[in-house]
Specification:
Distance between the termini: 12 Å
Strand content: 25-35%
Number of domains: 1
CATH class: Alpha Beta
Shape: globular
Helix content: 25-40%
Radius of gyration: 19 Å
């Protein structure tokens, strides 16, 4: 098989409600996931000599190889067959900011699970791959399944959803957020009433929010300032625990006009929300 490249898309949490806390300390969530047509890319390069082995073309700055979800996903999928499977080098083109709440690491893991399932011709089902993905992180299954979804539990209980495929301006303030710190804050809302699944922003949009946002605003002034600026042009929200924020726009041109006027020192991008993951679209073309 020749080398092939697969997308590893970003996600947004269009809302994130914390509805309780489990005995094991994890938080019970309700969230609406939607993909973006923007993200990282992973190229799968078969070993020229056919020897086994899983390698990274280059380490990702700031991430130990032992902690890298890309390698962990590959080794988890290979299991005890690793010595028998053809070798591969994984070349990652990173575009998504780390720790931004866009799911970059989880998306990378899902792309590896699906890409190596294809390369090694393992024939694992989506359900099997999603179960493996859950061992790597609560957000991995939604990327494996590849459809926008209403998530419950710790985010792994998924019901397909079809929110409007609008355009988004996504901004990354100049700070890094510690997710553990946010979820351990005493002031975090943990008792939001449960709501039934519904398409995002139909009816009363005020019902949809991010329960982490108030805490993040207090602890990270850069996020607060960025949200205040973006809110001039319409509702703006945090995704995940941040640091990225987003605003929704009806057209690409409307989003790009605001992008051109963003404050200095803030990075970001414009992308369209999509309900079918670009990863699954590309895999269909390969098969």
């Amino acid at each position: 098989m020749n080398a092939f490249t697969l997308p590893s898309p970003a996600k947004l949490n269009l809302c994130l409600h914390i509805v309780g806390r489990r005995p094991d300390g994890y938080h019970e969530l309700q969230t609406l996931f939607q993909f973006l047509d923007y993200g990282d890319e992973i190229t799968f390069v078969p070993a020229s000599d056919g020897r086994p082995g899983i390698h990274l073309a280059a380490s990702i700055p700031g991430v130990n190889d032992q902690d890298n979800l890309i390698l962990r996903a590959a080794r988890l999928l290979a299991g005890n067959q690793a010595a028998e499977l053809p070798g591969v080098t994984l070349d990652v083109a990173k575009r998504l900011p780390m720790g931004g709440g866009l799911g970059g690491g989880s998306s990378n893991a899902a792309t590896v699970l699906l890409g190596l399932n294809h390369y090694w011709q393992l024939g694992r089902s989506i359900d099997q791959l999603a179960e493996l993905g859950l061992q790597l992180g609560a957000d991995v299954p939604v990327f494996v399944r590849g459809h926008a979804a209403w998530g419950e539990g710790v985010g792994e209980q998924l019901t397909p959803a079809n929110p409007p495929q609008d355009w988004f301006l996504v901004l990354k303030p100049a700070c890094d957020i510690n997710t553990g710190k946010i979820f351990s804050e005493q002031g975090l809302t943990r008792n939001t009433p449960r709501i039934k699944i519904a398409p995002a922003f139909e009816g009363d949009a005020s019902r949809y929010r991010n329960d982490c946002e108030d805490v993040v605003r207090k602890l990270y002034p850069e996020v607060n300032q960025s949200l205040e600026w973006l809110s001039q042009f319409g509702p703006a929200r945090l995704t995940g625990t941040g640091a990225c924020i987003f605003g929704r726009f009806p057209t690409e041109s409307a989003a790009r006009i605001i992008w051109e006027s963003k404050p200095s020192g803030i990075t970001g991008f414009v992308a369209q929300g999509v309900n079918v993951s670009p990863l699954h679209t590309k895999l269909t073309e390969l098969t």
